[in-house]
Amino acid sequence: MVDIAAPPKLESVEGTFADGGFVVELDRFQGPLDLLLHLIREQDIDIFDIPIAQITQQFLQAMGDVDKLGLDRAGEFLEMAALLIRIKAQMLMPKRNAGEGELEDPRAELVRRLLEYEHFREAAIRFEESQIDRLRRYARGYVPPRKEPVVVTELEISWEELLKAAIGIGSRPQPPGDHHVTQRAVPVEEKITLILAALERLERVEFRRLIEPFRDNLHSVVTLLGALELAKRRDLELRQSEPFTELWLYRHKEIETHATDTDH
């Protein structure tokens, strides 16, 4: 354990501040970029505006136990320390880009590497969480059953068959055209003649008996129109005892005779 910028006698929880110090455990970091990103994120530092002097000092103090990491890992941390020192020196003497005349930020390459590392680290965490979730659901080594492959049968046809089919297209029977049936009109005069003929034989007749032989709505309507026309001419009378009961057609002269007999 190394206490950054704090007396050795102070103790603090890993990853938290204590009297201005910051405790890190070097062994738990996967590399120098991991340590550097941890220092930046835990102190809420803008990664695009890194205080390079502060971060360099903290990074160097955290490397107090670097000799315990082994030669390969220690070399990575030492290389990053050298890079931070170089950037710190360049910050004191910024170089100018000869092409555009703008100040070149020595931290730009480091920021790019940190963002790239953070991106892949988050992806690795997601994959690890997905693997843990899968282990909760399935045993290790489980392989889901594969669906049966769809057998695709290729169409095989010869030139003779294709030519025969092409010629046969024109000789196919065509579907019959639309056939429209126009209903024959029923003249009102025809129904008037029918009504008068029935009243010549009978003194009265039910309307239902006049339309029963035809069983057609059009004939019923035209027969009613004919009866109304005759009633208008005073050639017959229409009677109904109550609404929606049978409609009776009477000869006009029979009504007059019946009325006269009643008066006498």
Describe, in plain words, how this protein is organized in 3D:
With 264 residues, the protein is mainly alpha-helical. It is 50% helix and 8% strand. The chain has helices at 32-42, 52-62, 71-92, 108-137, 159-170, 188-201, 207-211, 217-232, 252-263; strands at residues 2-4, 17-18, 21-24, 204-206, 236-239, 248-251.
Basic shape: elongated
Number of β-strand runs:
6
- Approximate helicity band: 40-55%
- Helix-and-strand structural type: mainly alpha
**Helical element count?**
9
Low-pLDDT stretches are 1-20
User: What is the rounded distance between the termini?
Assistant: 138 Å
User: What is the N-to-C succession of helices and strands?
Assistant: EEEHHHHHHEHHEEH
- What is the radius of gyration computed over CA atoms, rounded to a whole number of angstroms? 54 Å
> Quick one: biggest sheet?
3 strands, antiparallel
What portion of the residues fall into strands of 2 or more residues?
Answer: 5-15%
Averaging pLDDT over every residue, what do you get? 77
Strand order of the largest sheet: 1-3-2
Structure at a glance:
This protein is 50% helix and 8% strand.
Key descriptive features of the protein:
264 residues, mainly alpha, three-stranded antiparallel β-sheet, 8% strand
Task: Explain the layout of strands and helices.
Blueprint: E1 2-4, E2 17-18, E3 21-24, H1 32-42, H2 52-62, H3 71-92, H4 108-137, H5 159-170, H6 188-201, E4 204-206, H7 207-211, H8 217-232, E5 236-239, E6 248-251, H9 252-263
Antiparallel strand pairs: 1-3, 2-3, 4-6, 5-6
Helix pairs in contact: 1-4, 2-3, 6-8
